[in-house]
Structures are given as structure tokens and as C-alpha cells.
Amino acid sequence: MKENKKTYWKGLEELTNDPEFVKNAEREFPEAPSVLGGEEGSSRRDFLKLMGFSLAAASLAACEAPVRKAIPYVNKPVDINPSIPNYYASTFASGGDYASIVVKTREGRPIKIDGNDLSPINGKGVSAIVEASVLSLYDKQRLTGPYINGEKADWSSLDSEVKSKLASAGTVKIVTNTVLSPSTQKALDLFAESFGGAEIITYDPVSNYGIRKAAETSYGVQGLPTYHFDKANVIVSFGADFLGTWISPIEYARQYGKGRKISKESPTMSRHFQFESNLSLTGANADYRTPVKPSQSGLAVLALYNAIAKKAGAASASGAAVEVAHLDQAANELWANRGKSIVVSGSNDPNVQIVINAINDLLNNNGATVDFSRPSYFRKGDDDKMNKFVADLKAGRVGGVVFYNCNPVYDFARGEEIEEGIAKAKVSVATNGSMDETASKVQYIAPDHHYLESWNDFNPRSGEYSLSQPTISPLFDTRQAQDSFLAWAGDDSNYYDFLQDNWRTSLFENQSETSDFQEFWDRSLYNGVYSVNSESSSVSGDLDISSAATAIGRTYKADNPGTELAIYTKVGIGSGAFSNNPWLQEMSDPISKATWDNYLTVSQKWAKDNGVKMVEGATKKAKITIGDKSLTVPVLVQPGQADGTVGLALGYGRTKSGRVADGVGVNAYALLDASKGFTNYDITEGVTVEITSDSYKIAQTQTHQTYMGREFVIQEATLADYKEDASAGRYKPQIYKEGEFMKPSKVSLWKGHKYSQHHWGLAIDMNSCIGCGACTVACQVENNVAVVGKQEVLNRREMAWIRIDRYYSSPEGSSSNSELERAADNPEVTFQPMMCQHCNNAPCETVCPVAATTHSSEGLNQMTYNRCIGTRYCANNCPYKVRRFNWFKYHDNKDFSAVNVAQNDDLGKMVLNPDVTVRARGVIEKCSMCVQRIQSGKLTAKREARKVKDGEINTACATACPTDAIVFGDMNDPNSKITEMLKIEENTTSALKEVNEERAYHVLEEINVSPNVWYFTKIRNKEKTEA
Amino acid sequence: MSIKRSLSSVPLRISTLVMLFFLSVGTQVFAANPDVSDAEEAVAAGKSIFNANCRTCHRLDQKNVGPALRGVTDRHSIDWTKRFIRNSQALIASGDAEAVAIYNEYNQLAMPAHEFLGDDDLMNLLAYIEYGDKVDASAAAADGGSGEGAAAGGSGVPSEYLTIILGVLVLVLFLILVVLGLIISILTKYLNTQKLEEDDEQFINQKFEFAKIFKSDAFIIIVTTIVIALVAKTAIDELYTIGVQQGYAPKQPIAFSHELHAGQYEMQCQYCHTGVELGKSANIPSANICMNCHMHIQNVDGKDGISPEIQKIYNAVDNNQPIEWVRVHNLPDLSYFNHAQHVAVGGVECQTCHGPIEEMEVVYQHSSLTMGWCIDCHRQTDIRAAGNEYYDKLVQLHSDSKAALKVKDIGGLECAKCHY
Question: B-contacting residues of A 400-459, CB under 8 Å?
Fold first, then answer.
């Protein structure tokens, strides 16, 4: 057995043992709980008065129960039964982000979104944004009807005015984000044609124009390549955050997860190199990560090309030499895995992408892991065209402009210019669903339905189709944008018929499975997806990179003295289109663990040089200036940040999105560089950052709930060690009793539980957990978890039932503080989902004075809110710190109505899960292992007089996980996946199962609380010596 | 879940039954077609078919939505009857005079087709129609009439008599006290007129000093204790009833009578409460379910015109305005209750919790719906494990125990079974 001797820490303050951190870590709850509104404390006399009054009021109120109504349908729809959910396949698409989904509805209200298992793209996985998008349906900020010049209007007058004015407006331009829908495209084309061939301009808030352009240059392909990370043994990424935010992250995470599954029988996994400036989610998962400045990144790609070209005997390209660690190793391994490797880059520079294409071609990856023959259409944005449009608009050359569900005033680099230009157009129209930055500037707003109210089709990839269908009747007087386009084009058919006709002619007639269109349509709609089979093949093209190399040589420098800014997108907020969603705002960022903010990420060296010290979120603001634009943002010291660079996230600084997001953070779109013909996210010149004297607090959750210095929470090994010994990296504590050492589980005060029917448990594979946080939002939606807002997060009172602990680690042997800090410049990262461990010897259960938390006969640790009196003894006694206390009444409380919209608005409340209680003030809550789902699954089995089938009951977190890192199941069922994973040979009724899987461990095994949640060691695909 | 009457009415009912049986043997003689079997098995088989398919609209001896059926084989040929049952619409469409006559007589109300019934099934059904449950109608009528009296009566002395007897006793005792007091005062007066010795005089006129007793410590302690105990008991009892709405019988927007529908017409509960075996909610029926019958039944007791109560359903449907019933059974949000678990899996009768619903003119909350009430039932109720594979392992593990497998034995008392 080889224990690992790394040092783990959750934040820099823990690493440096800051006194403030130590003080807070010892306290379960922060000192002096603040009172909402006003600081004046209330006296004891007031308290007694209030108590007396409320007691009297309560007894009076109890005399007469309120009359409650039971209102049935007048005409009950056949397929809706109250209290029984219905599921509909649909599709999420926004700005080119795509997911095929299944929507759970209750009594006609969508309440939860899961991935569609039948989808070949995202499968059952979702992302945080997709998961949270259901709340945006119930957003009060949505427009309730059409507007003309800021006044509410009706549809008929809007239609007639728009039609007549556009006809006489002259040049009409239509601006849109990526349109994945062929039928929508057709409707748009019809609309464009009827106004003299209006030009359709596509841009994306997060552009991947460079890849599109390169695909066109190299292969003449229109679209992005389709990537297969699952088929790659070696993955090299230059700044592409493909697990978090890049193009189609759910799909890539799903593929990546397959390559990271490891077992004793097949001890192989992919090796992942990442070269990047900001520490991204993908970089955090890499086996080898090298911080690289944006100014060097093009040269690094060129260097890799040259290294591989040398091996392949191809001509090398000229470029300045650049020293990048692990680059040679990457080249060697790529070469050794030709056809089974993949190289990607997140750069939006077409020249860099051309070199990437050439590298993949040399490696025979073209057609194997990078497929141009079946292109993906997730990003169709053309930055060049968009820039020309902005110029035209500014010059007043555009007579009429129509914005189709896009918000370029906010989310395009030249938003200010567009804002000015709109006023110069004779007619301006938008179909945006809310009065956002762009819609508020136009004359006519014809608000579109929310996507959950709409019909549509999608073609995300050559040969792959999907449909979306309404899951609720329109809440407001909105109209599907496609219907608006058809109406304005003078076509009076409705879009549903239009869509069906389109499918009839384009898809139904080219298939031979069925001759009945209705059957074909119904099946496609039921499945949500439809595939046309086609073979993938390699595409040959012109791979001369000399001109690209020359351009790279001009743009990139091996040694740039100035500060560089790398603008990125966060996993939770993305482009900012959904930023008015409090679930996403409060989701802690996977890396920085910050909520409700964007910030300038800086390296430790920079912080030291500039005298910034960050403790528990307290930091300084800095002023960042690029040319004539400047922003003042808080600074966040980020281990892993490339020296000489700073990072800033997009998607914040909204001004017209609504009460949740307005004024949160700053708008980084304004800093983007559009001068090169493509939207440039890496600003390498003219960046100055000055520290101001303003103090600021960033609400980070990272250092909350620590383990008080207990070690071996994270257990990990290298692949080389694992191959030698499957239990490598495991810490096996021994307890001394009566002359011998034994496992902690052999010594117990307790008799132990008996689980005669079920024994629920979770198995969490830390090797495939990428930390994306989809599970945390899924849990929030499923379990009605309250949003508490920034101030309460600062007070360490976030309510999350499942959190992803992000640990940094330094290599063994670094002991002195200075060594550790150096290691922290580029630390290894481990993610550990942490929720109630459902201990068999639960410390919380024994200390509850009112037996509000008890153990079930199925292994669950139950929390009974109506019994809880709020002593918080249980939270104090929980070694995992997973119990959360309701400091306030978060529902129906005006103090929280701006953040906790799902429990305060009449509209927002429609998203609540009716099977889960909304908790009151003063009670503890925690993960229930989705007991409502367990109960409902058991009932289904009982009603059908059969046993529960493995997989039919699943927790929300496990369902959402794109990489299957969380597995839920019955450890008493010999055929369940969890039994197989844990290698339980005897499914006894005992609570203590003999688990034979070497990688499986309990967090804090030495205290023998005997959890029902098992973790699998993290394996890094590194050489042995480097552990 | 058939409708069961409360036990208290059983003796009465049996006697009526016996009486009516003799009556009916004497008077009700049907000349059933001799081809229809009167074998017990056939009647039993027919009964289940009848209950499953016909009962919603038909009775044997009583006109309901459709005609009373007994004697049908006498009125029509067996072959015709079978064709009519299988597909009455086809028969009507073919212009069959008998079929058209019936169709018109019953407001042109279409009877659903029963093509799935085989020949044997139909013969069994006819056997039941002719020979089954002969006292069906009269028993129902008798029961309807005697229901109220029987419900009030119990075994032994009725409770209001007990109160009267006690009252009379108290009155008698009080009179005796008064009489005794009078006697004492008369005797004292008489003795005071006589010359007596000082001792005797003192004895007669001695003052009883209540004040002393009132001031004694023992008295104060006893009284205080009693008062505190009484106040505490009352307070605790009262506190326990907070939120308990037992007996709550709000006025409903439509004077819907369960006594009429479930009692007299013996309609199945599930006919209206469609969700009871599917999920958590039993469902208050939507107006379209009411309309299944009330398309045709527009008034009660054969009166002409539209009953004002039934008119309310029509208004709801015409205006697309749902009927706002007042909820009678209100569980707090913190507890989760699922009808399907209890009814479909556990086989619990509706009446177990909802009481004699078929006797309720206005629905009231029969049970207390407190947690203690839930738990008591979970302690006493056996698991209906037979034929349900889900319970096999639990039954096997429990087989050592002599006691039956109760809900409490499989976690039925755990918090997270109802609270989450």
C-alpha cells in the first residue's frame, strides 16, 4: 500500500494558514448571525413581547382553518392525471448551445429537465445552464405581449405596421445567433425574400468563427468538425475548455468520461495535455497542464506542428521558438497514437485553427477523431459579416433591421456601436422575449415564445435531427417568432404546419421505414431525435500552412512584456443569455467557487507584486484599461493562472436583463477586440491593470465547510502505480484494539442496522467527475433548494445539498510555505462531489434532542423538517459538513424575492417540485438521496407486483451527470450496477457490506461513521516518478 | 372496493332481507327463458361481468341510466339480446324495430359495444341478470330507508337516555337533600323552643366553621392542584385539537350527495375518483365525468325539468368555468400521502379512512387525520403481500416470526415514508 503524501487545500488562505481562515474553519457557523435589514439588535423584552404576541396570534389563527378549494378540470385532458408527471422529448438551443432533452411536467407545468438518452449527441447528460433553463420560462421579466415604440400594442397593428414599414425601409438586414433549425431557416429565408432579399447575418456571442473559417480554408467544409474525444488515447487542447464551455461541452464531457473510466481489468485511460492561460474546468481535469500566455499560444501550436512534422517528414513552418513545458512529450505521445489522438484549440484565430487542422491531418486523426465529413453546425456565426453589418448600420446604410432572438447590443464586441446604429435605421424590429439591451432600443418588439412553449426542429449535425414541442400553453400573449416571420412574409400558414411540411418533404420522403407520415412524425416527436445514417470518412483538402504560419509569426510573440487579458466564459453563466436565472448566479464556479460575480483572475505572483492579499473573499478592486475602455472589477487570486495574464468572464454586467442579473459584475464583451476580422478573446496588447483602494468581497464557497485538517479525504494515484497495485493511493486506517490492528469498521459501539429490502447507496468515481456542477443545479431544481443571494453566501449560509469540493494539491515533499506557494502556481486539481453520506453510524442522529433525524430501514439518513427545532447540534456533529440551516424564511419573503424567485413569485412557484416540501425557517435540511424518487419508484414496482429494477430509480444528481460519475443503486440487489462496481459478493441484509473494489473508499474511514456513499480513487495518467 | 354498509345496520338489514325474501318469492316471478342457466357458477361468473361492464348504467330490477334488466330474455330473444349487448349501435343502424324502440325510449343514449364478450360470457351474464341477487332492489330501498335510524342506534342503551337517567338521578338526590335540610331546620326550631341543658343547646346550635376549612393548608393545596390539573388537561386537550378538523363538513358549491350516488346507485368510487389507483391524488372528478351521466339525467326522482343543482354542472361546462369545490380533507403540506399506495397496493377500503361515505348527504371529515391516527393504522395493518413479488424477500425474512407482517415491520413508521 502506498499512501500519497500530497498536501491538499481548498483555497490559498488554507494553504497559507491565514489566521482569519483558521478562526472561521473551527466554527461550524459564522459568528453573530446578522439580522436582515438594519443592524440594531432587538432587546430581550422585545423578543418576549413578540413571542407572546405570536403565541396568541397562532392560537387565534388555529381556531378556524382557512377554506381551501379543490378545483378540478372542467374537461380533464386524457393524458394528464393530477399528481402524475408526464414526460415530453424536446430540445434546448440557445446561441448555438444545444441539448436534446426530456421535460418533466406536472399538471401541465414543466418542472424539470433531463437529458434525452436517445440523443446521439448529449445522451442523458445535461449542463447547468440547460438544467436551469426551466426557471427562465417562469421569469417575470418576460414580455407579456407585443410592443410598439415602448408601448404595449396588439398583434394585428404590429403586423400591419411592420409589414408596411419594412416594405418601404430600403435595405433590410436580419441579425440572428446560430439557427440550428432547418425549418426556421426556411421561414427566415421566406421572410428575407419577401423584403427584397434581405441579408441574414449570423453571429454568436461566444464565437468559433476561427474553426469554421479554417474548415472552409483547409477542406472547403461549411461547419465545425465533429469531435470524438472517446476515441482518443491522447488529448491535447490549447485553451479549449471542451468540458466546460467550448462548443458542445455536454457531448464532449460524455465522450471524455468514457475515456476516463478505469478498472483493474482494463487499466487504460486517455492522457490529457492542456496548454492554457486561465485555469479552466478542462485544464483542471488535465493530466499535464501548462500555463501558457495568450501571446505565445499560436507559437505553441506551431511548435507542436513542427515537432510532429519532423516525425512525419513533412516540411516545417517557421515561427519563433517558444519554451512550453510538456509540449515535446505531447508530440511524442500524439505521434505514437496516430489516428487515436486529438488536438483542439480554443482560439478564434483562423490561422491557428488551420495549423490545428494540419496537425490532426498529419496524425491521421482526420476522419477518425476529428470528422469533417459529418460537420456540426453548433456555431454558424460569421464575425466578418457581422463587423460589416455594424459598419453599415453605423453609417446609416441599413433601412430596416430585424433582430431574431439575439442581443448584440450586449453580447457583441461592438455593442455600443450597434446601439447607436439602431437609431439610424428607419425600422427596427426584435423578437426577443424580454426587454433586454437590444429590444429596449428597437421600435417593434414581437416577443417570441419561450423554447418550452414552441414547436421547432434542429439539425445540430449532418444527419442528426431533433424536435422541440410545447410543454405548456403560452403563459403570455407572445407569438412564436417563426409565425411572425411567416406572417410578415405574407404566408398565412402556421409554423406547426410549415414545420411538418418541411419534415414531410425533406426527411419523410427520403426514408423507407414507414409509409405513413403521421407515424413517422409521432415516432420522431416521441423520441425527440431522428438520425439519418451516414458513414464518416476522412476529407482531403489543402493543408498548406505556410501563409497561416507567417500570420501567426506576425501576431504572436514568444516574449511579450505587457499584461495580457484572456476573456473566457463560465460554466454556469456562459454567454449571459440566461444570467437572469438565480440558480445559475448562485451556482459556485467549478474553479474559483465564486458566486454572483465576475472578477479579474490574477496569478499569485501578480498579486504579490501588486500587494493584493485575498482572504475569505475579501479583496481589492482593480481598474483594467484597454485603449479607451476601462472597467473596475474585483481581483481574485487564482492558482494556475499563467504569469503575466489576467482573466475575465463574459456574461455579467447586464443592464436590462431583470432584477436578478442587473448590476451583477461587469460586461467584458466591451473589451473584446473586433479589429482583426474575427472576435478576439485574447487581448495581448495595451492592457493595463491598476489596483484601486476599493475593498470588495467576493462570495466564494470554497473555504466553507472544511474538514478541520483531517487528511485523506482525497485519495489518488497515478496510472502507473495503479497498474502495479489496484489499491494504490488508498489510505487504509487501522484501529488498535486488544493487541491487534484492525479495520475501523470492526470496532463499533453500535449493533448495526439491518436492511432487509433495499440498501440505497451512491458510488462516485472521482476519476470521471469533471466538476461541471450540472448535478448541483439538478439537485436544486429537484429538491426546491432555496437561493439565498450574495450577502447570505458571504455569511456562509448557502443552501446547496450537494457541493463539488475543489481541492488543489501540491506534490509530495514540498514542506516549506514558499515551496508550497510555488507549487500553487500550477496545482493539480481534484473534484469531489459532497452530499449527505447517509452514514450507518450517523453522528447527527445520536445528537438530535427531538429525533428529527433518524435512520431508515433502507439505509437512508432521514431528515424530518416538521420535527426539527433548529438546535443545529446535528450540523455541528456532521464530519462532512453537509447539513444546511434555514437561517431565514426564504419563501414568500420580500427580502429574498429578488433572488429566490422560485419560491416568491406566483409565476416562479410554478417550477417547484410538488413532491418536496418547501422548508420553513429554523430547520436543518440536507440531501435526502431523492427519497421522493425512491418512494415513487417503489410504488410503481409494488403496483406492478414486481421487484424494483436497477436503474428505474435514480437521483437527480446521477441523472444529470454527463460522465456517469455518480451511480445510484440498491446495494442489496445482486444485479445492480452499484453492486457490480463495488464488487459486493454477498448481498446480506447487514449495513456493513464487504466491498472488494480496491479503489472504493469512504471519506474519513477512520472515524467509522460507515457512509453509504463510496468514492473511487482519482487516477492521474502520469508517469510514476512525477506523482 | 365495493360499497359496504356500516356494521351497525347489519341486524336490521338481515331481518328486512328475510322478510323481503319471502315477499319476493311470493310476488316477483319472472318467466325467464328456460335456455338461460340458473347454475350457481354461471350466476357468479355473470355477476363479475355485470359489475365490470354494466353496473354503471344498469340495475337488475330498477330503471337507471338504462332499463332494468331482469326478464330481458323474456321480452326479447336470447340471440337478439346477445347482438344488442355486443353492438347495439350496429343493430339500431340495421333498423331493428325493437332496438330502435329502446334507443328512443332512453333518450337516444348509445350503449358502448362489448365485442370482446364471448358467447359463454354472455350466457353467464344473462344467467346473472335473470337469477342473480333477486332482492337487489328491495334491499337497497329498505336500506336507504332505515339507514339513518340504524346509524344513530348502537348496541345497549342509547347515550341520550343515559344522560336523561343521570339527570333524573341527580334531581332525585337533590330533592332528598332539600327534604333532609328542611327536616333538620324544623327539628332545630322545635328543640330551641324546648328547655334544654347548656351542653345540648350548644350541640344543637353549633356553628359549622367553613372558614377554618377554607383556610387550612391541606384544602388550599388540594384545590390548587385540582384547578391546575384541570386547566392543564383542558389546555393540552385543546392544543391537541388545533388543526384537527374532524367532522368538518363545509357547504359545497353543488349539493352533491354521496348518499345518492354511492349509496343508492352504488356507483363505484373509482368511476369518478379516477386517480385513486394511479397516484397521490384521488382526483375530484372533472365536470366532463359528471356529464357522462348527467347528459341524460337532468333531475332527481323522475321530476321534470332541470334540477338547479345539476344546472350548475351545465353552467360550468358551458362557461368553461371549473367548479370550485371546498376541500374537506386537508393534510398539511409537510406530510405526503399517496392514494395509490393505500388503495391499489394495500387494498385499503375507501371507508377505512373516509367513513361511511355512501351514507353522507354532505361529506364530512370522518377521521382525525392526525399523525397518531396514521401510525395506529400502520401498526395494526397487515401487508397485502400475497401475489406481489415486491414483498417476497420481506415475507421470507419475516417467516420466523409468528406475528403477521405489518406495515410497521417494513418501515411503515419511519419519518421519511411521509415527510420529505
Answer: none
